[in-house]
Design goal:
- The complex is a heterodimer.
- Chain A has helices spanning 61-69, 93-102, 120-131, 136-149, 166-179, 196-213, 224-230, 248-253, 258-265, and strands at residues 17-26, 35-45, 50-54, 76-81, 84-85, 103-106, 184-188, 216-221, 233-238, 241-247.
- The relative contact order of chain A is 0.17.
- In chain A, the strands form two sheets. Chain A has a six-stranded mixed beta sheet with strand order 6-7-8-3-9-10, sandwiched between helices. Chain A has a four-stranded antiparallel beta sheet with strand order 2-1-4-5, with helices on one face.
- By secondary structure, chain A is of the alpha/beta class.
- Chain A has a domain at 17-110 and 184-265: Rossmann fold, CATH 3.40.50.300.
- Chain A contains nine helices and ten strands.
- In chain A, helix 3 packs across helix 4 (136-149), helix 3 packs parallel to helix 5 (166-179) and helix 4 (136-149) packs across helix 5.
- Chain B has a domain at 1-76 and 174-181 and 200-340: 3-Layer(aba) Sandwich (Rossmann fold), CATH 3.40.50.300.
- Helix content of chain B is 34%, strand content 22%.
- In chain B, the strands form two sheets. An eight-stranded mixed beta sheet of chain B has the order 6-7-8-3-9-10-12-11, sandwiched between helices. In chain B, strands 2-1-4-5 form a four-stranded antiparallel beta sheet, with helices on one face.
- In chain B, strand 11 (303-305) and strand 12 (308-310) form a beta hairpin.
- In chain B, helix 3 crosses helix 4 and helix 4 (122-135) crosses helix 6 (154-167).
- At the A-B interface, helix 5, helix 6, helix 7, helix 8 and helix 9 of A face helix 7, helix 8 and helix 10 of B.
């Protein structure tokens, strides 16, 4: 199952993101072979689609995201964005910028992912200055367009992050990501720390943005309910490996792997009672 | 008599050199063996309320109203009685077990500390906690007790915390987001033990959580807090069909479901207000789709309605409307994002 990429590979434009046989080994003990954080992971995200990588702590989902965005170097495997493969040799800074433009990331914690001394406007402008040749008026117009896109009031443009709520900060992070007009936005638990009423707003916003811009999403999440709401395809990871993959409705309505079933069964919902998840007790030594 | 009785509890905290009210009005009674879920979003005051019950508030905090444990005022307790209260009647489980355990002492020492402090023989204390570890699903108790906290996973350590709480045979358990930091399967593993032990021992519990579904699953009643006010107190079993307060309905409707994909989530507009931002009128009216002129001027008092209590001027009306209108929360206005 692990080597079958999910998501339909249709004729036509190349997928927004393609990952093949990706491996990451961190150096260190575990019988001197190092720690295998990501083990032979393959999937593909067609343009304008949304794929979720689901897993619990230690599943390797965050390491996977960091490799795709270029913060971590894969030990083996291939990552291709819009049909062009990433090489891990030294590249020119222009090439580096081009890559950054294609893949953007929104992190979990909007309290630590924004510069506290930078206003919302400057935060977004910084991305525009780096990547586009716009004059001042062009930048101002683009900032306003982006704020509109994330439904942030224009009057917040000159605020510092400390004056914004968690939900507003996460909107700024999304606007900053969208500033580069990326092919793929990686959302690494991007709604996990938001209050439930704000989480719903941001999830609705993200689906609106996808409809408006055709951007593809890679959601990294532990929350199957959130995932059902925002993704077309799901990859379930456990201990670095894909245990199940397929269309979201199929995986969630008729899960095949026992681990997926356990994850689903553990989510509180109407009529739910806590039950042992059949995890072997005492796996940590 | 209620085991715990909070009467118009209000809490002021020191912020920037002056006292400001964070919790405004929380009133509820908890019967012996009963579990209440304190549910709300950030700034609602749910953690502070639970901490006030064990007198663990930040320095300089001021408490108004009454907190009575079997009729005795907790706010008036002397140092000595407070100490004995914490050693024998009430126990607390926190969100982050690692922040509430001494990292350089062995698990066994931590577990027996309260019992030894209470004058129990050390050997007897060890026996008691070994048995308790087994009841929370930790089989190799003796090995675990020789280990240090860092050698245990988060889920295992949280079960150790539950065993520690049970060790003093309390009458009341306070649990503040005890599984929020855990993976969802680990949460289920921890909750199954917490729930079974609580029911088996007939313990009363105040369960603080942002997860309404989790609270409904393990509590008898749900008390919903918003901006430092208790706005609804309803039996957990009926909440899905008969939530009385628009905020409770909004909370239920905004959470995505693992079994059903919705076209759009019924998001509540605006953001949750904290107790510091309360203005006149109903505390929720700035986000409420049903707010009328009266709601903006007059703060609704908490009143009884059937077997529940609610602080909403229009509760009966909305309940009727909900019955004829069908699905819960469906009448909640769906807006695209917010600008608040």
């Amino acid at each position: 199952m692990a080597d079958r990429p999910v998501g339909l590979r249709e004729p036509g434009p190349p997928p927004a993101l393609e990952v093949e046989h990706l491996v990451k080994v961190f150096p260190g003990p575990r019988s001197a072979g190092g720690f295998l954080a990501v083990d032979d992971v393959s999937f593909c995200v067609p343009q304008g689609r949304s794929l979720a990588v689901v897993g619990e702590s230690g599943s390797g989902k965050t390491t996977l995201a960091r490799m795709i965005v270029g913060l971590e170097r894969p030990s083996a495997g291939r990552i291709a964005v819009a049909g062009s493969a990433r090489s891990w040799r030294r590249v020119s800074s222009a090439e580096r910028k081009r890559r950054a433009r294609e893949v953007q990331i929104v992190f979990q914690d909007p309290y630590s992912s924004l510069d506290p001394r930078q206003s919302v406007r400057r935060c977004i402008e910084e991305a525009l200055v780096l990547h586009f040749d716009l004059d001042r008026a062009g930048r101002t117009a683009r900032v306003e367009e982006l704020l509109e896109q994330v439904r942030l009031d224009r009057r917040h443009a000159d605020s510092l992050p400390k004056r914004l709520s968690g939900g507003q900060r996460q909107r700024v992070a999304i606007a900053r990501a969208l500033a580069c007009a990326p092919k793929v936005v990686i959302c690494d638990e991007a709604v996990a720390s938001l209050d439930v009423s704000i989480q719903a707003q941001v999830l609705n916003l993200m689906s609106d943005i996808r409809n408006e811009t055709g951007v593809s999403y890679l959601f990294i999440s532990h929350d199957l309910a959130v995932v059902r709401q925002v993704s077309d395809d799901i990859v379930v990871m456990r201990r670095g490996r894909i245990v199940e993959a397929g269309p979201a409705d199929r995986v969630l309505d008729a899960p095949e792997h026992p681990y997926t079933r356990r994850l689903l069964a553990a989510i509180p919902r109407p009529g739910w009672r806590p039950a042992p998840s059949q995890e072997e007790v005492g796996t940590s030594s | 008599m209620a085991i715990l009785h909070l009467e118009h509890l209000a809490i002021d905290l020191q912020t920037a050199g002056r006292l400001r009210r964070v919790v405004h009005d929380v009133t509820f009674r908890l019967a012996e063996g009963e579990a209440v879920g304190l549910v709300g979003e950030s700034g609602a005051g749910k953690s502070l309320t639970s901490r006030a019950v064990i007198r663990l508030l930040p320095d300089g905090a001021r408490v108004h109203g009454a907190i009575l444990m079997e009729g005795r005022s907790i706010t008036d307790m002397s140092r000595e009685s407070l100490r004995s209260y914490r050693l024998s009647e009430v126990a607390m489980i926190f969100q982050d077990p690692r922040a509430h355990v001494n990292p350089v002492r062995r698990v066994g020492d931590f577990l027996t500390e309260a019992l030894v402090e209470r004058g129990e023989d050390r050997k007897k204390a060890l026996e008691i906690v070994t048995g308790l570890l087994a009841t929370v699903g930790i089989e190799d108790a003796e090995r675990r007790m020789r280990q240090y906290p860092h050698e245990l996973s988060g889920g295992l350590l949280q079960r150790v915390m539950i065993a520690a709480a049970l060790s003093i045979s309390p009458k009341l358990l306070l649990a503040d987001e005890p599984t929020t930091a855990l993976d969802v399967t680990t949460q289920s593993d921890v909750m199954v033990h917490l729930d079974a032990q609580r029911r088996g021992r007939g313990l009363a519990m105040v369960f603080v959580t942002h997860d309404l579904e989790l609270a409904i699953a393990v509590c008898d009643r749900i008390a919903v807090l918003y901006a430092g006010h208790l706005v609804e107190d309803s039996p957990a079993a009926h909440l899905h069909e008969k939530a009385l307060h628009p905020y409770t309905r909004g909370l239920l409707a905004s959470r995505p479901s693992p079994t059903l994909r919705r076209e759009r989530l019924a998001a509540i507009p605006g953001r949750p207000l904290s107790g510091l931002e309360v203005q006149e009128g109903c505390v929720f009216c700035s986000r409420c789709a049903h707010a009328q002129e009266r709601c903006q001027k007059e703060r609704p008092v908490l009143r009884e309605l059937g077997d529940a209590r609610v602080a909403c001027h229009r509760a009966e009306e909305l309940l009727e409307g909900g019955r004829s209108g069908g699905a819960d929360g469906a009448e909640f206005e769906v807006r695209v994002g917010d600008r608040g």
